[in-house]
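Side project, low priority. Logging it here so it doesn't get lost.
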Amino acid sequence: MALTVKKLAMSHLVSLNKMDCIRALSPWTNGTSRCSFSVGAGQTGSGDSSDTSEDGAGVRYQEFQRWHNGGGTFHKSACIDPTALIEMGAIVHPKSVVGAYVHIGSGTVIGPSVTIGQLTKIGYNVVLTNCTVGDLCVIHNGVCIGQDGFGFFVDENGNMLKKPQMLNARIGNNVEIGANTCIDRGSWRDTVIGDHSKIDNLVQIGHNVVIGRSCMLCGQVGIAGSVTIGDYVTLGGRVAVRDHVSIVSKVRLAAISCVTKDIKEPGDYGGFPAVPIREWRRQVATQFQTSKKRVP
């Protein structure tokens, strides 16, 4: 009997030693952050390791830790408010700033040096890079913000070369962005979405686009690069806007319209190319009457 008790005690001691070794080797920690939240301040967490393995950008894998609220992953140089929720499977990269009461869904990637304002909710499988996001925003599933824009030129040999895309995307306060929408970073100026603007699903916004406040972009809108849009502009479903066009404030565009030149007067527009709405309706009526006359 005494021998059996001794064997059980030894087995328990070995198990405890194994668990201590596992904890010592693990890069993850379940403790809370030790830093106070402030913009620009890094976080100091437990779980540091002497392992020098790193990726191509020089980031050590062992410097990523487990966030206490939600189980997500964060880099120790990121500045995250203790009230933020980072769900399991989400990751916050170095030098990013996450404000108070932010909710980051599973599968989301917050790239290096991204700033997210307070009370912003981010859905699943979102990718944020080279951008800032304001307060009280809602970013739905699958949104991508801050990737390179579509900019190329042809050299003297006929080869297609990429134009540098080095600037950022800036999302204002109280902005809502629908699922699977893409917003490119800027090349010669930042891409900007103004405060209180609402963007539907499957919208493409090219590099250098500047959109004013309280605008509404319906599903499948496509805005080419370097477009400037004023305040209180509404774009109906599948509206297309060509590059380097300016649209004044308080313009509404009917669905499936195409803007090919500047719109300088407020009002309603429609058609391809977009013209004042009454002119477009006359065009449609004339075409309808002409087609009826041709019918035998």
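Brief comment: Residues 29-49+57-294 form a domain with the UDP N-Acetylglucosamine Acyltransferase; domain 1 fold (CATH 2.160.10.10).
Revisit when time allows.
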